[in-house]
Amino acid sequence: MVLERLERELMLLSRHQVMARRERDAECLERSAYLLLSRIDAQGPMSIGQLAEAFGLDTSTVNRQTAALLRCGLAERVADPEGGMARKLRITEEGGRRLAADREVNRSCLARVVAHWSADEVQELEDVLVRLNRSAEALEGRHWPRTEDDAREREAQ
Predict the structure, then answer these.
(1) CA 73, 79, 85 angle in degrees (round to 5)?
(2) pTM for the full model?
(3) For 30-67, what is each residue's pLDDT tens digit?
(4) Half-sphere exposure of 93 (CA within 13 A, CB side)
């Protein structure tokens, strides 16, 4: 019964996020563009194969999605900075601007949702969501890079 309610609440959370995106202006990124750009932003330039692996998707799917990013000028192909054979995708200035604008809208909407919550309640929600996402990532074997992980690694060295 608890898992049934949890599944419903996660579905509703997803729905609310989709509805908020529809209410935005025409400049809002498609969901796939937002996710791909977010991953490239977190990890740096990535090949189509790396993106497919990161998301657990077929390369043809990622190829179509990245082609749309390229057509819109949100990403560009660059030589592998590490000297590899595959070309990588890097966020353009326009892609970075639009990603930052979407993130700001998302944060603004989220701020309105939790406006009457205490700081401790907001922190508790963040902690639980991080734990949920890390558990899902561990099961999938696909880690999403987080800037706070990099900071902890630097501190440990």
Answers:
(1) 130
(2) 0.84
(3) 889 999 999 999 999 999 999 999 999 999 999 999 99
(4) 0
